[in-house]
Amino acid sequence: MCTYGNHGLVYDHAIPFRYIQEELLKIVNPNVGNVRHVLEIYQVACLITKEEDNLLTSIGLRSSMPDAGVEINCLARYEAAGIKVIPNPDYVPNCV
User: Fold this and answer.
1) For residue 12, which of 58, 63, 59, 70 has the smallest C-alpha distance?
2) What is the number of structural domains in the chain?
3) Is 67 within a domain?
4) pLDDT in tens, 80-93
5) Sign of dihedral through CA atoms 47, 48, 49, 54?
6) Domain range holding 29?
7) Please, which contacts does 40-43 make with residues 24 or more away whose CB atoms are closer than 8 Å?
8) How far apart are CA 13 and CA 47, in angstroms?
9) Nearest residue to 17 (alpha-carbon basis) of 50, 52, 42
10) Is residue 74 part of a domain?
11) How high is the pLDDT of residue 62?
12) What is the pTM of this model?
């Protein structure tokens, strides 16, 4: 989590970093390709308000994901908290 100045915004990993770390550590023979693959799937970030961050904490989702079965929904924490995510129209996926 990183708070930006006095603007009340928090940089939040949509999927908590410990989940990303666990997926990376599962890679038997790490190489650029399979590490990039994990990061492209799991490394999603959102700017949320401090109030939304406090809400995630209050419902136990600050650093955990809601139970979702096999498939990971990167926005599941926000959906469980009733936080609306607005896509960034300027986002360029997979740029290196």
Assistant:
1) 63
2) 1
3) yes
4) 999 999 988 887 66
5) negative
6) 2-81
7) 40/94, 41/72, 42/15, 42/72, 42/74, 43/13, 43/15
8) 9
9) 42
10) yes
11) 92
12) 0.78
